[in-house]
């Protein structure tokens, strides 16, 4: 059975804008274990569901998508953003 993970996209550290703020990402969890390739030694799997990434504007849209297709899911909320506001002069104390 396919299990999906629905998570809220975090803002990147280098990103100051709010363009993609509040988007939700649906990814499928790995069903088959990784196995090393005998020729190259790289890890690989025949499970291609892990390559699927679907974004939604709201959490409700992502949940409705999973419910309509009978996909089990779990929600992962984003960590709260901690902003430390300080003056430029505080850098030289």
Automatic annotation (TrEMBL):
Gene3D superfamilies the record matches: atu1810 like domain
Entries under Pfam families matching the protein: NDUS4 (PF04800)
Main location: membrane
Localisation per UniProt entry: Membrane
Assigned keywords, A-Z: Electron transport, Membrane, Respiratory chain, Transit peptide, Transport
Keyword Electron transport: yes
Superkingdom to which the source organism belongs: Bacteria
Name of the protein this chain belongs to: ETC complex I subunit
């Amino acid at each position: 059975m396919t299990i999906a993970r629905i998570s809220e996209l975090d803002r990147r550290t280098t990103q100051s804008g709010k363009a993609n703020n509040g988007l939700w990402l649906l990814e499928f969890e790995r069903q088959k274990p990784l196995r090393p390739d005998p020729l190259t030694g790289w890890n690989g799997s025949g499970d291609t569901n892990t390559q699927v990434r679907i974004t939604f504007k709201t959490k409700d849209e992502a949940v409705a998508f999973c419910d309509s297709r009978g996909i089990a899911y779990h929600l992962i909320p984003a960590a709260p953003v901690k902003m430390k506001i300080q003056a430029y002069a505080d850098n030289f104390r």
